Amino acid sequence: MFGAGGGTSSYQEIEETDVILLWGSNARDTHPIFFHHLLVGVHAGARLFVIDPRRTSSAQWADAWLGLDVGSDIALASTMAREIIHSGLHNRAFIERATEGFRDYAASVEPFTLEEGERLTGVPAEAIREAAHAFARADRAMICWTLGITEHHNAVDNVLALINLGLLTGHVGRYGSGLNPLRGQNNVQGGGDMGAIPNKLPGFQDIERDVEARAHFEAAWGVPLDPHRGWHLTQMFEGMERGELRTLYVIGENPAASEADVRRARRLLGGLDFLVVQDIFMTQTAEMADIVFPSSASWCESEGTVTNSERRVQRVRRALDPPSDARDDMWILTELARRLGHDWGAPTAEEVWDELRSLSPMHRGMSYRRLEELGGLQWPCPDEQHPGSLFLHGRLWLEPREGPPAPFSVVEHRPPFEALDAEFPIRLTTGRRLESYNTGVQSGRFRSPLHKGGAICLSPEDAERLLLEDAEIVRVSSRRGTVEAPVRIDPGLRSGLAFMTFHFPGEVDTNVLTIDATDPRSGTAEFKAAAIRIEKIVRRASDGSAKVGEPAPALGR
Amino acid sequence: MGEMQHLTARRMVDLEIDGEPVRVLEGSTILDACRGLGIDTPTLCYGETLRPANVCRVCVVELEGARVLAPACSRKVEPGMKVRTDSERVRHSRKLVLELLSSSVDLSTTPAAAGYLERYGAEPERHGPPAPADPGRDRRRAGHHEEPDGQTAATAASPIKIDNELYVRDYSKCILCYKCVDVCGEQHQNTFAIAVAGRGFDARISTEYVAPLPESACVYCGNCIAVCPTGALMFTSEHELRAEGVWDEARQERTDTICPYCGVGCNLTLHVQDNRIVKVTSPDDHDITRGNLCVKGRFGVQHVNARGR
User: Fold this and answer.
1) Residue B150 lies in a domain
2) How confident is the model at residue A549 (pLDDT cuts 50, 70, 90)?
3) Residue B289 contacts A, CB cutoff 8 Å
4) Residue in A175, A319, A326 nearest the CB of B253
5) Domains in chain A, ordered, with CATH?
6) Whole-prediction pTM value?
7) Shared-domain flag, residues B179 and B302
């Protein structure tokens, strides 16, 4: 946010806030221990608004559930913003001192009356008004979001729309007020910290614009660095399509199962000249590889650090000996470098970390000793006397303000890439369940009574209209492909909305259906919005009378 | 920062424990003060992450001028308080509590029980041989309790419940400390899968309508296992290793690391025996988890055991 790639607040703050907007997140199931902190806040009196197309287990804890149509987040945020401005509830002093671009932003949300908001989002005007007023009037308020915001073709605009709400009300940069993406994977924040972003060096230093930082790295490593940004995942697949990317080295990722429009992904991976996969299991992607490097599990067979959703860097430690053929990730990388003619020696995890500290100012104060003594430290932590940072952007509240103003962004409501039509009349959205995780590489290997397998979840209304029963196998099709899946009736879904996970790709290959329309800036595909059709499968009776694949009755909307 | 101000704003309280003067922060319990002096106070229902339930009474102490004994785990210190932790009354009361518990409940997997029984000279066998287990205990209703025969010791014995692959419930070992109910309920997990059913000696922990766990509201976070003081709730892995006679805590290493799943960054303590993860806990004093995990962190880490070894 405003240049810092991380959530602004700490978990403890949500226990002491007054209003929580949980937006595009089912944290009860996907971030259960964060939700513990949230519930402490709710029990202490915080009002919770859950904004999600599905009436999720998180929504069951909410004062109000705003069940918006998939992909109408910006329209909802803009409607809330207009209502806040027209009611005089925006924080004029904060806007004046700490932000820029308010006038253009205010003009951009002007068309979003409550009535227009209701029309665009499906959320009753009164509910939008109530959420807007509660958020703006609160002494402390937080917005937390997950992939419901970012897995869209306009992901960056969605995030900017939420940041705008924070700036409009001054709900950022103070204890108990903040803007927080809940990270989906245990070290996705750490990946960003370490520069696994096309245009960033470690510590979020811009490789194109920050010449001084680049020079530091060049001096430390003794090599000139390519001053241009690299590709993100989506651009890599586009590069494969054009034949420009011929060799791929995949570490701890399973794109052959996890990519949207996965048939295309498999075709492109299969067409590479050379595919290397480094993983702890023989994943679907590893099955396609020319070379597989079996690696140790980074979180329990190796030493190192990870960064969580509150920017806290914590130690991971070796508790187990890896299987005999597996090697530490770092050993594999240094050995590879050696064979390519670069002797990097055999550094310990701590030595690598200390090099990072010497080059990334925000991590400088985080010695291994301090990380162990303090149970982790939150960046920025510029020196060894610094206690770490509970929240970010406190500077916006200084008088006079320090540093540049935080910009409002004018964003446009653009519905999902794939509109519904007569042929594909149902909106498919995807997500996670409590007991599972991504493509099931890890979570598929423990026995849990909660594992229910792959399915297509439908509202009771749609199931009835399509003459479908619970557990009945149906054919689900999008413009990209077809899968068969059992029906699961979910009263948390509204008519016209279906839900699937991709935890069980061996049973139901959900990503055959999803669309790879991506936000060109973030490279994130629109996993949350595909158009599908559902057909009843009528099995041939013994006398051969029934037709196979009889089309389902049309779903009128 | 806020916490520092809070701490410095608290006053100190002077009191006396077993004749020794002691000064502790206001708001501390007698148990905190005893620990500060190195006095080993037995506890069973007390949990670091839970509000005191005050039910087991094994931590009671004598307060000068008070008519009844006070539970050290919940009673706050007061200026001038004179506490006795090892008086005749205290020893007698602790002995009786331990005797009644161990005559009716299987304390064989309660870590400190044997030491406490010995220290206080408890003789559970004087209450008679244990009565046979009652397979219908789960269904007993209030008011249907049968008179004891006076010859055998009534027990909480009931068949072990093995109805899922992640953890087992052996309520023959349950002392009704309420910790599992409190952690499953509003103090942490907010799932409310279990509660106390029945009354009096028939009281027991139960799911709704005694449903097997897979049909109950349970989400398998295992936070109840983490707080259970007696081993009534146990990882299936631990239960099986104990049954094979190979469970050996002396050979286990505990290593703290971070959960491999979502981005919350929960701290896991991996209990490893023979290079296998046999149990997972989380530190009570870490402010991310406060000892709690979800099903993935608690049980979903078995995949590393499953790797082609």
Assistant:
1) no
2) very low
3) yes
4) A319
5) 11-181 (3.40.228.10), 188-378 (3.40.50.740), 426-536 (2.40.40.20)
6) 0.94
7) yes
